[in-house]
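Researcher: Next entry: SDR family NAD(P)-dependent oxidoreductase (Actinoplanes sichuanensis).
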Amino acid sequence: MSVALVTGASRGIGRAVASRLAEQGHHLVLHGHDPERIAATAGEIAGKFGVTVVHAAGDIADPATSKALARLAFDTFKRLDALVVNAGTHAAGMLGMTPDATVERLFAVNAAGAAYTLQNAVRLLARGQRPAVVLTASITGDQGVAGQAVYAASKAAVAGLARSAAKELGPRGIRVNAVAPGFIATDMLDTLDEAGRADRIAHTALGRLGEADEVADVIVFLLSEQARFVTGQIIGVDGGLTL
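Model: Predicted structure:
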């Protein structure tokens, strides 16, 4: 059976991805920031789908966290076949009004955290069977959104990481892609006020927010054999927001 590592798996898109992969029979290494929440998530998924699920908690902005995840995966399974670099944080703020600490945190988690995770998983992925990676970027990183310039910049870094990693790791048989979700109904949207949320919906062709499961379906596809000739792509999952 395949082995997958999912970061940010205790809620939202990450939890939906973990559930989809477990449903397909993947063994899992799950990461979350909160120890109690990720332990509960791992227990629920293991109990429901009957797969082996191990977990670890920590701040993904700290490289020690992704190193510990790689060690856990090696000690338990000796390899990785799939990696979902999903852990992230969101904050909105106008330029000139965004605190320094917010700027630092957005880049530390979204950009540096993604790079640490991928770096520390590469050797295990090289041991895997048809290994594939999917990173969670954002449509804001490509299209830009007023009031979210710093967040957009941190997610643009994720897209750049995915494209460059695809070129570098392709000769080793490792595919790397990213998804760029639009506005998805998760608790990360709590940082948007009601007016901002209504505006995003009004500009989305499908006229609604997306669901975490809808993003998870695309991520699982990109990890699968059905996407075996797809690499270096940033796939929008935005309901037509960018049209």
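Model: Note for the record: The beta strands are 3-6, 27-32, 53-57, 82-85, 132-136, 175-181, 234-237.
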